Amino acid sequence: MALVDDGTADEVTPDRSAELAAWLDRIERLHPRNIDLGLERVQAVAAAMGLTRPAPTVVTVGGTNGKGSCVTFLESILMTAGLATGAYLSPHLLRYNERVRIGGCEVDDAALIEGFEAVEAARRDVSLTYFEFGTLAALWLMERVQLDVAVLEVGLGGRLDAVNVVDADVAVLTSIDIDHEEWLGSDRESIGREKAGIFRAKRPAICGDPSPPASVAQVARACGAELLQLGRHFKYTRKAKGWNWQGLSRRYAALPLPALAGAFQLRNASCALAAIEQLSRRHVIGEGDVRAGLLTAKLAGRYQRIADDTAEWVFDVGHNAEAAGALAAELAAAPVRGRTTAIIGMMRDKRVEEYARRLAPYVNEWMAVTLPPPRGLGDAELATRLEALALKVERAGAVADACALAASRAGPRDRILVCGSFHTIGPALEARGLYSRPGRKHTVARR
Q: How far is C-alpha 72 from the geometric centre of its chain's CA atoms?
């Protein structure tokens, strides 16, 4: 069985977007809670579906920040090496199809619907969350093509996350910081313990956090995983025009800077290269594949900088204090001669004040926008919380309206920062005409 891409999928595949939208609405309302961590329900349905492994080789990528970037680096390098690769990411910016990629292309509406139908037929009376339902559909779709490697982004946790139903050959933790405290705990030790739950006995467990909580090593020892720590077992060094990387058996000098911008991406790319070093025991992956893969990795909304005739625009999906600190460092390193306006929208379970406090020294004025309820904050409530920090804030309504207003006021020396949530960045990219839908799709050949 092979991946098929004849370049004509858009013309021959009927539009089933309305049917997909109905499915997404249904599975969003299926379970009484948006998040309900635990593997028993997912394992039961996976067994009923006959799911085993999405590919002969599986990599899972967890952590607080940088997961999607690390997945994308891995996907790009593996595909450059000629390996049939599937990737699962979350959340999406605008289209659910973004979450499941086969050979670098989003699966189409018809494939997703078929995956949802397979889950529905198998689950009987088992109630699944939106993420659990979608994860099972993604695994089912990947099993039905001849993949060499599947790279799976873990959701908000690790130990009890739906993705953890699959035993990974290589597990990656990009970073550990405070986020999703309601489910993971209020300190880094608790969060590290949960996220390290993706480790497996006698298999590589890569940690890219430079100062991980002790719980990560404790979990690795308890389960018998081979812990590979940034700074000890692999390291990277930034150079004037590139960077160097060194692992246990591989060394790369004068690597090109990744296509994904930001100094923080070197850490994510370093984690990906540590995983590639381990995967090279199973697959042929050359230095040329690494270099080309770093240059071709694409992922929207990660410190994405666009200069147009209005101003410099920066789009960043980060939504916690650690991400805000990394973004602040980039803003400080690339100052503008004019003013910086931040269009911000956030979810109510985030540490809004801490996030804004990290960015405040580099922002002149703020425009608070409204995100969808029930999790999204309205512009009035968000503005009130920001004003409590003595920030200059304007209530700006919808994301698209805020983008238009900011553009009308900006000059060529100014910067417009769009930040705080995936739900902010997606509509903003669309409003600015920067969201591109794929022209070619992979169809899924049947077994």
A: 8
Which of 404, 408, 382 is CA-nearest to residue 394?
A: 382
Are 162 and 132 in contact by the 8 Å Cβ rule? The answer is yes
The one-letter amino acid at 349: D
Maximum C-alpha span of the chain: 61
Give the structural domain span for 131. Answer: 15-296
pTM higher than 0.85: yes
Closest CA to 173 of 326, 58, 61, 57: 61
Mind giving me the DSSP string for 130-168?
HHHHHHHHHHHHHHTS--SEEEEE--S-STTSGGGGSPP
Do 129 and 221 share a structural domain?
A: yes
Q: Convert the pLDDT of each residue in 385-425 to its tens digit.
A: 999 999 999 999 999 999 999 999 999 999 999 999 999 99
Q: Which of 296, 325, 358 is the last residue of a domain?
A: 296
Q: Is the distance from CB of 429 to CB of 437 less than 8 angstroms?
A: no
Same domain, 85 and 213: yes
What's the token pair of residue 6? 């004849």
